[in-house]
Amino acid sequence: MPILSRAALVEHLVRTRIAGDVATPRDNNLGHYRALANGDRHYWFGLEFEGRWSDEQDVLAVMAERCGVVDDPAHRAGRDTIDPELTVAALDRMAARLAKAAAGRERVLFATGHPGALLDAHSRVAGALRARGCEIVRIPGGLTADEGYVVQFADVAVFERGASLWHTHSPEPMNAILDGLESLGEPVPDLVVADHGWAGRAAQRGVDAVGYADCNDPALFLAEAEGTMQVTVPLDDHVLDPRSYEPMTAYLLDAAGLMR
């Protein structure tokens, strides 16, 4: 696939609604910000905030700065936005961390709570790092969490239930992986590349973590603001055609010096 310039990638992100005017309703965003501020741990993604973000207006301010949502608290209905320039800037920061992983031949774990959209993006990056000598962490067999199984598919840890890969924001699958590695006497990963609770819980447990988050999922952006997450890339994490993420992934790999 040809590598898009920064300007062309921005145009692509807006056209495919990965960024720009996204499909997420504004009231959904604000509801999630309020729930996180009110202490609903479902929206904490395995992180520990302990009241540091108890004002939803503070959450909104961070989301406007790091994701590009509308900063006006009076805007309460209709659509919301993700700034594509912020998306590409975060991809550049993620690329720098991936380049460091490649240079050090680090042990890297990939995981996703959005297998219907982001699995291929994670898998392509895993393959590129393996080609540069990194060890892609194999998770222990037989792991369970949340009444389902934690399995690995195409180098990416996912949650399986009822013979299907499930969308999950839960941190428990990542807990299962890290606890399972510890029980086998294996070291924790040097880097986790993930999203949702998989990324949040890894970061909370002290592992370097980078990942993706939507504009209605503020936890990882707050964690980056605090320095717990290393990089959070803002994007719509489930557009209709998962192939729409391919130019973004190619840009990321090229920026990291990982294109074959």
Describe the structure.
- With 260 residues, this protein is of the alpha/beta class.
- The chain folds into two domains: 20-83, no CATH class; 85-255, Rossmann fold.
- The chain contains nine helices and eleven strands.
- Strands 3, 4, 5, 6, 7, 8, 9, 10 and 11 form a nine-stranded mixed beta sheet that branches.
- A hairpin with a 2-residue loop joins strand 5 and strand 6.
- Helix 2 (26-37) crosses helix 3, helix 4 crosses helix 9 and helix 6 (172-183) crosses helix 7.
Order of helices and strands: HEHHEHEHEEEEEHEHEHEH
In DSSP terms (H or I, runs of 4 or more residues), the helix count works out at 9
Mean pLDDT rating:
97
Secondary structure: number of strands? 11
Helix amount:
40-55%
Q: How far apart, in Å, are the first and last alpha carbons?
A: 11 Å
What's the alpha carbon Rg, rounded to whole Å?
A: 17 Å
Work out the strand percent. Answer: 15-25%
Structural class: alpha/beta
Fill in the CATH topology of the largest domain: Rossmann fold
